[in-house]
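User: Teach me something about this protein's shape.
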Amino acid sequence: MRLATILRDGKARLAAYRGQDLIDLSEAGSGLPGSMLAFVEGGEAARAAIAAALDKAPSSALLDPERTTFLPVLSRPGKIICVGLNYADHSAESGFKQPDYPTLFGRFSTTLIGHRAPMIRPNLSDQLDYEGEIAAVIGRRAKHVPKARALDHVAGYAVFNEGSVREYQFKAPQWTVGKNFDGTGAFGPALVTADELPPGARGLKLETRLNGQTVQSASTDSMVFDVASLIAIISEAITLEPGDVIVTGTPAGVGVARKPPLFMKPGDVCEVEVEGIGLLVNPIAQEEAVRSAA
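Assistant: First, the predicted structure itself:
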């Protein structure tokens, strides 16, 4: 099943795909989940209810995906846990020794934007970099979960572009500020439930394109710590709850490692595409211009 959070009539709504059609679930039937979090928390019962409603959805519920405003898959996750240096080629290009324990850091919900929303280059820096990744959304509470059962706790997967302001990422040993500028975390366009994909989203092609030029291309098989390992390791220390997000890391090809560096600038368009999950597209805009337009 493929679901999206959309904006319609000034309100966030949950939508689901029926083939190529996008259906506003608020008009597809009664008693359906009204948000992505409600869907995730609702488990199999919520999924079955949506599947039944999609077959009978009225024409008034049908949306044109090209004219729909997409919001982040989850606008306010309880936790967004990112994984750094999770592809060996990216660790090498960044000058880091490959760690033997996941490099974890937090990202905040104020950074999140949806599909086709502008990714914001801040006025403080011109070093806005792309990082194409997959995000795993937790569907069941996980604490001290063994790796063999870890994937049972995944509701689904989405595409993520973890925009990083490199100048600020490396101002201090902790990366927090450079990874948390407002409007730099693109998340969408849709959540694809785990049963639609290979276990752990393994073996999928991940590609990032800047202005149509491929700048990252890798298989998710190349992750040093796969999704099951990440859930098992993180849940040793941190309780994962429904709606939490794990952003699993980026492969080689980032702009800061290129000679000369390749940073995103206003007017650029960045695309991240993951096989079987979707295509996430975001134009780049300058913070000052966005403020003036508001």
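Now, about its shape. The mean pLDDT is 96. The two ends are 36 Å apart (CA to CA). If you'd like, I can walk through any region in more detail.
User: That's plenty for now, thanks!
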